[in-house]
Structure formats: C-alpha cells, structure tokens
C-alpha cells in the first residue's frame, strides 16, 4: 500500500468517526444538538491537528522521536501564565473574564519564551539532545513550582478557576475561543508554509542541513516560534496533554514508513483526529463519562514512552 492509499484510508476513518460523533443518538432536537456537537468536534479537530503538527516539526528539528514540545515546559508555562494573572489581578480581572485577551496574552508570552529558549539551546555550537531535555525538565519543574507556590496563597474559590485549566478536558471544550483559534491557526499555517520545504533536509541533522545550504539557525528559530503558537492554541482549547503528540507522531512514522514530511504531517494530523474523536466516542458511549479521554491518552502515552526509552536503550 503506497503513501496516498494509507492517507486516504486515515481520512475516510476520520470522516466516519466525525459523522458517528455528530449523528449517534441525536434525537428529534437535532437543530439544537448538531451545532453544539459541531463546535465540540471542531475544537477537537483543531486541538488534534495543532498537537500533531507541532510535535512532528519539533521532533524533526531536535532529530529525536521521544521528545514533544511539552517536555521543554511549554504546557507548564501556560499554566504559570494563567496562575500569575489570577494571583496578581484576581479572577474578575479583564484578562480572565475576556478569554480572547487572555488567549492572545498567553500566545505572546509563549512565543517570547520560545525565542529565549532558542538562544539557550540552539544558538551555541555543540549543544546536544541531552542538554535540550535537561533544560526542558528544569524549566518545566521551575514553572510548576512557581505555579504551586502562588496557588497555595490565593483564595480557594480562585484556585478552582485555575484547577479547571490544569487538566485537559474534552467533555468541556472551550468553544468560546474557536473563532480566534481558527484565525490564529490560519495565520500559523501561512507562516509555516514558507518553512515546510526545509523539514526533509532538517531531519538529516544540523551539519548535513548546513552543508546543503540551509540557514539552519534562522529556520529553526522560526519553526520553534510557530510550535509555541500551536501549543498555545491546543492548551487554551482543552488544557495540557502531555503524550498525545508523542503517540501520534510515532504511529505516523511506523504506519507510513515515509521520510517526506508532506506525508508525515498529514498522516499524523489524521491519526490524531482519529484517536481523539474515536476516544471521545468511547468515553461518552461505552464508559458513559466515568473517565476522561486525557487520562486514557496520558496512560497509553506514558506506557508507550517507556517502550520507546527501552527500545532506544537496546539500540545503544
């Protein structure tokens, strides 16, 4: 089976799951239920696409398939920003009440952080993947510690607002941010369009990319900023999901057996949509909301992460 056939199969499977999600048990009040389910499925598709795309690009520029943007502290930074806003201004401040302003502020700060991180990780010569992982863990732990410190000092009622943002929830998707998320996502797609052609060469490594004429530092810095924007969108919509990107990116590599990113990016996005929509169907129809999709994804993703670590360890 060639690449196009595999991608077509994934597209059909995603379309079937989306149709099932929209139409099963819709009842006579379909004019009320259908728009509500449509907003939810749109948010899930945007989230899945943003996470899959950003993780695939991040793994390419780091040349490592066990890393995700979450591991360098972007999710922790988002929670720190939300905690800091409520800690300083209170839950009734404009930035909290107006979700669009909150969203744009979070994106701007995460992009700024991505720029700083680039200076620390990629600008110097000789930095390797272990340094990236170490710095990422330090940043993530640092952000979480500051967030926890502020959370124990604030009013318990305001802590409940932060708590809603600490855990990913596909049962209560933030549909108020759909319009601005779509706009930012379209702008990000235009931004990435200039650099997608470099991904196949970047996957060969820094030295080979430079030898083939790519301005490595320039391209990587801009890709890292785009990744920060995509992670901001997905985290603002449903909350932090640590292992989804790891799962879908590696499954795309194993399923497609391709190196061209025009296939890998599309394949990983479709796998992400299938996993999220199919998983949410199971949570709603089989488990009747007794558990959440994020718990299942993080459990399976955690086990798969350990498998990848053991697999890499054997190859050493």
Structure write-up:
This protein is mainly alpha-helical and 316 residues long. 76% of the residues lie in helices and 0% in strands. The chain has 14 helices and no strands. It is globular. The protein starts with a helix and ends with a helix. The mean pLDDT is 80.
Write the layout of secondary structure elements.
Blueprint: H1 3-23, H2 30-62, H3 74-89, H4 94-97, H5 99-121, H6 129-151, H7 156-166, H8 178-193, H9 199-202, H10 206-211, H11 216-238, H12 244-256, H13 261-285, H14 293-315
Helix pairs in contact: 1-2, 1-13, 2-8, 2-11, 2-12, 2-13, 3-5, 3-6, 3-7, 5-11, 8-11, 12-13
List keywords for this structure.
mainly alpha, 14 helices, 76% helix, globular
Our estimate of the beta-strand percent is under 5%
Q: How would you sum up the global shape? A: globular
Tell me the Rg in angstroms: 20 Å
- List low-pLDDT spans: none
Report on the biggest sheet.
none
| Tally of individual helices | 14
Distance between the first and last residues' Cα: 32 Å
Kindly state the number of beta strands.
0
- In sequence order, what are the helices and strands, one letter per element? HHHHHHHHHHHHHH
What is the residue-averaged pLDDT?
A: 80
Helix content: over 70%
Please identify the structural class as seen in this structure. mainly alpha
